[in-house]
């Protein structure tokens, strides 16, 4: 892959707030196109993710908030952090 190239990407979207254990139906995989770029003059790198890890911490951010939280909660229709 070269910089400036447009590549296909799959984005994981939260469809519904999670109640109980997360289910496959709570998420949606959406194909997207993405242009590979690193700011000129930066020492940044591009990486390719092969797997998605859904850590236990994310479980709380995918639930409907009952009270204001210090962390950013995900909302249905948004991609996972």
UniProtKB/TrEMBL annotation:
Domain Oxidoreductase N-terminal: 11-77
Disordered as annotated region, ranges: 62-81
Keyword Oxidoreductase: yes
Residue spans crossing the bilayer: none
Biased composition (Polar residues): 64-75
GO molecular function: oxidoreductase activity, acting on the CH-CH group of donors, NAD or NADP as acceptor
Name of the protein: Oxidoreductase N-terminal domain-containing protein
Keyword terms of this UniProt record: Oxidoreductase
InterPro entries: ADH_N_2, GroES-like_sf, MDR_fam
